Amino acid sequence: MRIKEIRIQKNITQKDLADAVGINMSVLSRYENGKTEPTAKRLVEIAKALDVDVDYLLGTEENNDVISIERRESIVDEKRRLRHYASLLQNDFVKRMVILGAGGKCELCGQDAPFKDQNGRPYLEIHPLYDDYDIDREEIEKKLVALCPNCNSKINVLKDSVDIERLKEIASRHDY
């Protein structure tokens, strides 16, 4: 357990940590010296007071980048939004809506889709224009465009601001 190591690293006195957790300094000293094990609840309180992850505090996480509890919650939140966003991008209805809205043409170069998929539909790739993962179906058509594979690769590799702004303007006029 790394209580003492982290406490010292963060310039926190034993008294300050004990007060923050609501325990006696002697109890904290026993935790730090490995003479007594804190309960799970107490462990969480200590990790929170030290602003570290419980796994790091326990020594089961070797990452030296101490992740605060708030940051971990933020990461979990971000993953949840990304999963929602990815599910919208993979949704066949959403993909068809964007491709049909583009009239089977690439919204950047204006050329017809280079080929048809196995269902006979124009093959275009869906490209998100924003890193805004808090979107739903009602507003998604304003945030996605249909691109031919070449233009999609061009946007992903070059990230040309002129092309991106042009696509955002096109997307803002989408009305499916």
Describe this structure in words.
The chain is mostly helical and 176 residues long. The protein has two domains: 3-67, 434 Repressor (Amino-terminal Domain); 82-172, no CATH class. The chain is 53% helix and 5% strand. The chain is built from nine helices and two strands. It has helices at 3-9, 14-21, 25-32, 40-50, 54-58, 69-90, 92-101, 149-158, 161-172, and strands at residues 125-128, 144-147. Strands 1-2 form a two-stranded antiparallel ribbon. The model has no long low-confidence stretch (mean pLDDT 85).
Helix-strand string:
HHHHHHHEEHH
Number of strands: 2
**Domains (count):** 2
Ranges where pLDDT stays below 50 over 5 or more residues in a row are none
Structural class: mainly alpha
Major beta-sheet overview: 2 strands, antiparallel
- Into which percent range does the helicity of residues fall? 40-55%
Strand content: under 5%
Outline type: rod-shaped
- Kindly provide the radius of gyration, computed on alpha-carbon positions and rounded to a whole number of angstroms: 26 Å
| Spatial gap, N to C terminus | 57 Å
* Helix run count: 9
Strand order, main sheet: write it out.
1-2
Q: Average pLDDT value?
A: 85
What is the strand and helix layout of this fold?
Elements: H1 3-9, H2 14-21, H3 25-32, H4 40-50, H5 54-58, H6 69-90, H7 92-101, E1 125-128, E2 144-147, H8 149-158, H9 161-172
Antiparallel strand pairs: 1-2
Helix pairs in contact: 2-3
